[in-house]
Every structure is written in structure tokens, then in C-alpha cells.
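seq/struct pair 1
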Amino acid sequence: MALFEPTATTKVLNSDGTKNGKLERPKFVLCMSFNSRGELITGDSDGNLIVWSSKEPRMVFLHKKLNDTGIFTINVNDDCLIYAGKSGKIVELDSTYQSTGRSFELSENCGGCRCILYLNNNMLIVGTMKNSIYQVNLGEFNFFKCLISSHCDEIWGLSQGNNPSSFLTCANDGLLSLWDSMSFSQVWSVGLQEKLHCVDSHPSLDLAAVGFCKPKWIVFDLIEKKPVFVQSEGSEQIEVIKYSPNGCYLAAGSRDNSIYVYRVSDDGLKYSRVGKCSAHSSFLTHLDWSNSSEFIMSNSGDYEILFWRADTCRQVLDVSVIRDITWASRTCVLSMETLGIWDNGMDGTDINGCCEAKNSDLLVSVDDFGKVNLFKYPCASLKADRKVFAGHSSHVTNCRFISNETRLITTGGNDMGVFQWEILND
């Protein structure tokens, strides 16, 4: 505690201009940097800026309550210092730790500042608490530009986009984002104000269906960037949503154990309910459409595999019919063609998603262990050969090949990452 007590030689400055030297011990020291004299500069959770002697453990300078939200980052450049905190306000100080008059405040949507670097005397690189990186100019013309933007909560929704190189993501942060895989960049991002869980793009129109973490789904116009249809359905969150290959149907799988099937008309702007598929005894996890858009295959939380006719919402029990169905996608983790992705000792929640690259006969699965697993398709034998790839630091939530199947996209849970993998011939 004595370490945080100013001495008689400590220069003290309060934010209100007074020189009261009494200091309460801060809960956290959040950041630190060294100046050109070798002195350590720290910022803490109480918003205090402290300069420490390079020769002994004592304070040289104390600026109390410099930032009401705490000082999260400090960077020193020659005789100047910049600091910022949760509020997003960036302030520059001179060599005497007085304001130079240069500052910049990021909007609330950008998030608080977590890291700052000088590029030169005027230009800064700022990393925020919403997983974005901005270029900020403190010079004569104050401006900022977003260099990298991403999600700031778990990402579960992933779909191919409206052109061969694009893809869509949605997350618990309420953002729906369109990305371009060739330029490694986010094209746009729209906040929908509520937690999102799943997304699927229409096969021929510039529309996407988005499922919420509540009994609600919408249809979103990818050109106008606005919802064009809103529907409340069931009593639980929408777990999976998918258009049929011909674009004439939409299936929404809910955590209330049911699949709600809609007929699509009026160029994707009108949705009329066909019926409800009800036979699962647990919540829906995955579903796939047949190439003909006649049948649906679904998985549930208690490891059931069921089949349905889309136009009647009746369960298909005839094995001879099921045997001859060809599927437009392979995202159901439980099927005869994906038996080999499961290891001994796994439970039904360890694998979060899978997808197939039809042109190269590849199958990818992603799991709770942060791994991306590559198999040959079909993968019907137990203990199938695989290649395992690491990168995510937490559970991997979803995976999709972009529509030309040259890249694989995977999304993360706690790491909130969007990873892109190139498909190479081996």
C-alpha cells in the first residue's frame, strides 16, 4: 500500500486543478509504458496517470482522475504521450504531462480504446474493445478510418453470400456482416439490435434469412441493407434457418423441437406458412434440403435423424425413399455420410458443424476443442483418416465453403474470430 502513497517530492495534479496528494489504492493497473528517461508510466482503473522513478520505487508525478472510465492504454512518442480509456476519448499530453490540446473521441459504436500506437506525430492506430482497428489523425484535419472491423461476441451464423467470393456472418452482438474473401475485408455491417444466431442467403436473390436468439426471424435485403419481412415463430430461439435450393421454401428450425416451413413468393418478399414438422423430442440443431427441394433432413439435441416432406410437413419413414434422396448440402453432423467425423468418447455436443465441398469430395467438421478437421467425403467409416488444423483459441462454432469452394470459412465462439482457409491440392 505504501507504494501508492505520494512522497514529499511527488508532483501531484488533480483533474480539477487542485494539488491534494491523497490517493486511494486503485483496484487494477491496466497499462504501462516507458518514457525516454526510462521512467515507468502506468494507468489504472481509477483513471490515475502515475510516473515512477527509474531508480527507486516511488512516484515522480501523479495526475489523479485523469479519465473517469479508467486509463486502458498509454503510448509514448518522443516528448508526447497519448492515453485513452473505455469512453473512447484519446488525449495527447506533452513532456510535462499537460494537455497539448489535441484529442479525438471515437463514437460509442466503435467501442472503448484498448490499445494505441503512434504511426507518426499525427497518425495513430487504435484497437478497440469491439475487436476493431481504426486509423486516427490528430493533426489539422481530424478524421478516422476503419481498417479492420469484426464481431465482439460469439459468432454462430454463417452462410455463403450473394456472389462467389462473399459470405455472411451474424453473432450475439446483434451484427449482420457481409465479407469479401478475396480482399479479406468486411464489406458492410448492420446492427439489428438483438442477439442473432443463424443466417442463410437466398439461392438466387439478394436476400438473407436471419434467425434471432428468440422466437423471431427476418428476411434482410442485402442491397438496401434493411429488413423486408419479419416473423415471430414458436416459443424458443431459431436454431437453424435455410432456403430450399429452388428458393421456393424456407425452413426454420426452433429450440421448441419443431421445424416451421414457409412457401416463398413475390420475389422473396412474401412468406406463407406451409406447416410445422413436429416429431423431434429435443431442440433442432441442423437441417439440410434435398436437391429437388422436396425433402428435409434434420438433427436434434438428443441425436435423432429425421426426414420430412416439405410440402406436407409429414415425416418420411419409407427407407427406400430416403435411400435415393440426394442432398443439396451436408451440414447435418449426424447422418450415414458423416459417421466418421465422430471419435470414441465424444458426446453429441462436441462437434458444432460440418460442411461438404462437392467439387472436391471433401468434408470439414469443427468442434469444441478449437480444431478444424478435414475428411474425404463420404465419411461413413469409423475412425476415418483426417487432417487436423488449429488456429482458433476456443470452440469453433460453424464452417462453410464459399460458393466457388476455393476457400473455407470458420467462425469462433469465445475468440470471436472469422478464419479463412485456402483449399490446396495435396
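seq/struct pair 2
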Amino acid sequence: AVVSTQSTGTRQRHPAVHISHNDAVEYCHHYGARLPSEVEWEYAARGGKRDQIYPWGNDFKKNRMNIWEGSFPKENKGKDGFIGVAPVDAFKPQNDFGLYDMV
């Protein structure tokens, strides 16, 4: 079944999207934090592993992420089960750190 993600009632479990770098920096500043460096982000995204293309390894697996399937931007076939953005936990964690949506 294909799930539409357009209603606000189902958005509580969705990732934040369209966040500018300035917005992210200001958010971190407000909470006394900082954005990760590129090296830190890559380490987290890959679950501490090196020399692999994707967080789970080197083989592309489209069942591990929410991707556009169809003729962009006119048609999304929703083969992954979602039209639009999927909830954060719609797919199993992408790496050994248990992080979601790193791709």
C-alpha cells in the first residue's frame, strides 16, 4: 500500500526537510551545541566503518531508503510504499549505530 504523507497529522514522525545551514547553526547556537564537522558526519553516517559507499556497505539497496521512483518531478510511483517523504523509522536503521535516514 502506498501511503500519502501530505497531511500534517502524520508528520510527527517525519524528518525535518528544507533546513538551511544558517537555520541549523542558529538552532545549535540556541541550545549551546554545534553542527558536526564533515568528518564527524561521515563517521556517524557510515556507522564508524570506512571505505564503503553506503552506510550499510557497498551494494545499493533501494529498500533501505525513501527514494523518488519515477519521472522527476512529475511522477513518483511510490514503489517504496510512500509518495513524498517517509517517516523516519519507515526503514530499518541504515548503519550499526542505529541511525535512520543518513542517505
